[in-house]
């Protein structure tokens, strides 16, 4: 194969410093051996059995790697300069590989300045890079120290070694070539010597395989069938001669070294048929396929094709509005989360995302209250997405005035005229998709004058004489619900109602699969999750009663924490307890009794059912204001970084304190760890304060401090606010950092902001019931403030809530465990191969939900302990980070024993021909139920002195 061909197609795109690749073995395929290099055989319809398990492989060079797609693979190689953080996505089944060029260096690389220039042997003009002399004695150590070690410290455990043949540009004699090859081999040995567990993928490097093949995880090459011509910027067919040469290399690698061989081929990103056909041909040869675009910046197709689980929401919230309270989060996110999708948000005032969006997104949802600022660009972008076949759902308005050409593309007609006599009435509507929480109420002064064509289906027809329009419809490109037929604003009572049935409409408009197993954060092993957390506000407040019965007359003052300590101790409720440092510090306003408060905090934290959290240093009330990202103020001051902040939004007055994000987050964590928390129980969470509208830099501070975060969202559905618009989503991504919302709102809004009634928190039981039936949207979260410990009525309400929920079939967890499940939801991959589904995540989220009446076939399932029909569907119990199963009707389920439900985490689940066994780890006394065990013997015993840990054996007669 000509040298120029080998080098111009290598996996390094110098003009684009973002690179990613992925290997996968869970949906691993048994593939036939590579054919002889004398030709390219047609794919065999009956391939011979392979000799080894093949990993599946994917490559992604774009920014913001789609983890929920890449996590379907065994290894994912990403460009480390993309900003991707592998430590934030630790997955048991996916190894994150960092791209690392060995033979060449780009001057923009951080280590270039430290590289002795005498080691640079030449130039590669095609890529504007410098070729490194591999024969330099100091090069292997330098490479490990300056390239590999920093990547290892960032969390990468694999390395994709590129440009392994660049030495051929400078070595002209046999002796020079031998020295270069020996140097390359020395680099690879040095990597494995420093990091024996590192996985290495070679991009080519055929000449050095005899020396280092035993150190390789896989060998990759490019363009077996389809290539990319970088110089001419075009896709090309690979010649038969070049293909035969590569197949000879592949055959030798597989036969002599028994290594997986990966081929990266290239098709236009919009041509999925080309990608699928090419991947199929490569697989038939026993080679691991991955087919992507020429820049590797879109998600391609390999041995598997995970389902797209992202939705792009484009909206136009008012200026200086935090994302938390934008319409896309308030109204759209919850139903989309319930359907199994994570969300990217884009403000319509910003340029729209470009490139092939179909490879990443399952659909686009528009929520536009006004016309966009750049209508021509937006119109072209919207038309492009529709032409590409990306489903679009539109709420409120299209964001632009429809012209006849665009209307025709959308199968719409622009209706001239206006309602006669100021009247507009409902002629008909689809009762399955419209009239959900209230019937449509047309407004003759606020409407969109369009009517659907013959290829669309009206959901809501409005008439005023001869003036006939469609307020909502399902169309060939998606669907729409114009204002006010999506969500109706009840301004007089500060509430809203869904007119559209959001789940049914979004599924229909976006063509979302109805049978996809949905990662579910509400349930574990069939039981609804139960958690509790306390915001630190009021820890310095005196209790107004003693022992819950009489006014406090004791000489020693009792504080809110004293009452809550007894409640937590006696109930055993797993609770995340936070403190505000400024309330318990000698620097704060309560110095006279701060030491007593710290001692009380230590007593609470020592309880085994309590985990430790911070509620910040000074409890900021308005995060956008105090960080300088919100409304300006005459009292703004400078932070260390020079940005404007406001001191008025702080709850605790600390003399001389100037607001600092690091002091609020990491500083308060350090204080609680050093002075209050037990040594073996450090701070694990930050519970956001005030309005909880935390900007991305604040979220980043929590991630950098190594703690999880919670709070925000406004789930407050009750009988007096009976609307899904009052149910918050899982959270929101800001600048690459995810804010996890509290599943439920705290007691303040049930007690009139602590104006009374102080027993009002009992109404949270209405919220728990309405987020469970007929659809389970949320786990149970008993969320309150330290103020609750100050009054007899509020404590009585808490006890009633505790007693009620603990009598229900629940799985108690800490809020940190819930937060990890939410983060797992974001990263989970779902792949379908015929009738078989494979689900992979980080092992924290242990439930997927199937449609009602559908169950997993346990005869061929892996990673599944059982299932239980419940509100909204069938809850499938996963045993770890990966499960694979087919789905059947419940009436066809085989009669074999399985776990029906349990109140803890299932570990070490093993199914045998005569039954199964498992370990059950619970936060309270462990409970479980089994199904179909009539002819079985069940034994159980504690695994240790911990009464919450059981081992269970189920042995059944044949």
TrEMBL record:
Under the heading InterPro entries, the entry gives: Aldolase_TIM (IPR013785), GH (IPR017853), GH114_TIM-barrel (IPR004352), UCP029570 (IPR016925)
Show which residues constitute the signal peptide: 1-36
Keywords from the UniProt entry: Signal
Among Pfam families, the record links this protein to:
Glyco_hydro_114
Q: Which SUPFAM superfamilies match?
A: (Trans)glycosidases
Is Signal a UniProt keyword of this protein?
Answer: yes
Q: Where is the Glycoside-hydrolase family GH114 TIM-barrel domain?
A: 81-297
- Work out whether the entry's keyword set contains Ribosomal protein: no
- Spell out the protein name for this chain: Glycoside-hydrolase family GH114 TIM-barrel domain-containing protein
* Superkingdom classification of source: Bacteria
- List the Gene3D superfamilies hit by this protein, alphabetically: Aldolase class I
